[in-house]
Amino acid sequence: MDSVSLFKKTFDGIDYRSGPLNSGEYEECRFVNCDFSDTDISGVKFINCEFVGCNLSVAKLSDTALRDVKFKECKLWGLRFDLCSQFGLSVSFEGCSLNNATFYRTKIKKTSFIGTQLKETDFSQCDLTGAVFDECDLAGAMFDNSILEKVDFRTSCNYSIDPERNRIRKAKFSLPHVLGLLNKYDIEVGD
Fold first, then answer.
1. Which residues make Cβ contacts (< 8 Å) with residue 89, sequence separation at least 6?
2. Who is most buried in 71, 87, 91, 187, counting CB within 10 A?
3. What is residue 181's predicted lDDT score, i.e. its pLDDT?
4. 10 Å Cβ neighbour count for 187?
């Protein structure tokens, strides 16, 4: 595979399962309706790129650089963001399906998750300081020894967060979903 350095290119409707993406650096590129599912994009650098309507489920991300990368309406099941290059890791998600993904021990401060499904996603030991979860479904998402300070959960649902095992200072919650902070106590709250 040849190494490339591409700037401001658009890739539309390409199925990378039949022919892999060239390794190298992609800056300010757009990937629209492309299929990267179960492919290996390890070591590739994406800088200020946008993925729209793409499927990256179970793609291999070992040492992949994601710097200021936006994902919109993408299927990202089972992605291991913990294996990405942590240098400059900066991503945002809008209208995505990010189920069973792993952000274990990543530092993704101020990340935006907008209208995104995050079922069974692992945020253990993750630094999410100042992140926003807007209209997200966090059913089964794992938060353990995570930094959730100043995180906005007000419009999201189905989270279960143990305040004794996570740093939640100045995090924002709303009723009735704030009851997800009490799940570990196995109590019933009623009118």
1. 65, 66, 67, 81, 106, 107, 108
2. 71
3. 78
4. 8
Model pLDDT for residues 137-149, shown as the tens digit of each residue: 999 999 999 999 9
Among the three residues 65, 91, 117, which one is the final residue of a domain in this structure?
91
Examine residue 76 and state whether it is found in any structural domain, yes or no: yes
Residues 164 and 87 in one domain: no
Structure tokens at 86: 């942590």
Collect the ranges in the chain with pLDDT lower than 70.
1-2, 182-185, 187-191
Residue 96 lies in a domain: no
Q: Which two tokens stand for residue 153?
A: 């959960």
Q: What is the DSSP letter of 99?
A: T
Domain count, the chain: 2
Query: What are the φ/ψ torsions at residue 117 (nearest 5 degrees)?
Result: -85, 125
Q: Could you tell me how far CA 21 lies from the centroid of its own chain?
A: 21
